[in-house]
Write a structure and sequence with these properties.
This protein is an alpha+beta fold. It is 34% helix and 20% strand. It is built from ten helices and ten strands. The strands form four sheets. A four-stranded antiparallel sheet has the order 1-2-3-4. Helix 6 (165-172) crosses helix 7 (176-185). The longest helix has 14 residues, at 73-86. Bound molecules: zinc ion. The site of zinc ion has 7 residues, from loops.
Length: 241
């Protein structure tokens, strides 16, 4: 029988990061506490609630209407944000310290300003990454949505110019997702220079190329010659293929 893997699940203040080596026959997990510290915790202690946090919260003290001892997703999200932003020892302190607004140091205020998460799959994120965790600048997003947002924040260097994907898109008059799609299919140069409305066959559908009687697709030739597709494009353009 396949052993149940708790990775990604949350138990009280713990979020399970990954499996850790067994201790004897006991299954162990590396877990992240909402305060930002990591510990290895027994599987059974997670499930039973015998371990609910790293010890940063006194178990007897009931907090914020968590009558059942189960912490809400919103409360856990707030604890994580606060740890990231206020704890100088947090592993991501250099990115996040100072980003939490004064008002949200108080959970009651955060609770009032932020709606409940639509589902358990949603995590909180900032809408504008140039601004902090503050009213009007956070939203609940699924992993896929977050991933999309992060890719828009990708820095791309081309022709001596380095700017965000989203700014390249604006410059080309296309949407972020169109540019993202281009980048997954085309060489950088083509993706960043062709104007709106350009349609280019995906590289692997490019017509077969005949060289010395051998016919193969562009991708096939690139593989045969051990070069990248963009090198192939350059060689064809320059007539050196
Ligand atoms: Zn803790």
């Amino acid at each position: 029988m396949k052993r149940q893997d708790l990775t990604g699940q949350s138990f009280n203040h713990w979020t399970v990061l990954t499996r850790a080596p067994n201790r004897g026959t006991t299954t162990m997990y590396l877990c992240l506490c909402t305060c930002g510290s990591e510990r290895v915790v027994q599987s059974g202690h997670l499930k039973s609630g015998a371990s609910s946090c790293c010890g940063c919260i006194k178990p007897a003290k009931k907090t914020h209407g968590q009558a059942s001892g189960k912490f809400t997703k919103k409360y856990r999200a707030w604890r994580q944000i606060r740890a990231r932003c206020n704890n100088p020892n947090h592993k991501n302190a250099i990115i996040y310290n100072g980003l939490l607004c004064e008002r949200w140091n108080d959970f009651e205020a955060f609770d009032k300003d932020v709606p409940e998460p639509p589902s358990n799959e949603h995590t909180i994120e900032r809408i504008d990454n140039n601004k902090g965790y503050e009213p009007g600048n956070v939203t609940w997003a699924t992993f896929a949505e977050q991933h999309r947002n992060q890719s828009n924040c990708r820095w791309i260097e081309f022709n001596g110019k380095c700017q965000l994907l989203t700014d390249w898109a604006k410059e080309l008059g296309i949407t972020d997702s169109t540019l993202y799609g281009r980048l997954t299919r085309w060489p950088l140069e083509k993706a960043l220079t062709l104007p709106n409305g350009s349609r280019v066959m995906p590289a692997n559908n490019v017509l077969a190329i005949d060289r010395n009687g051998v016919v193969d697709s562009l991708t096939g030739w690139a593989q045969r010659l051990g070069v990248s597709l963009s090198t192939m494009h350059k060689r064809i353009k320059n007539g050196t293929f």
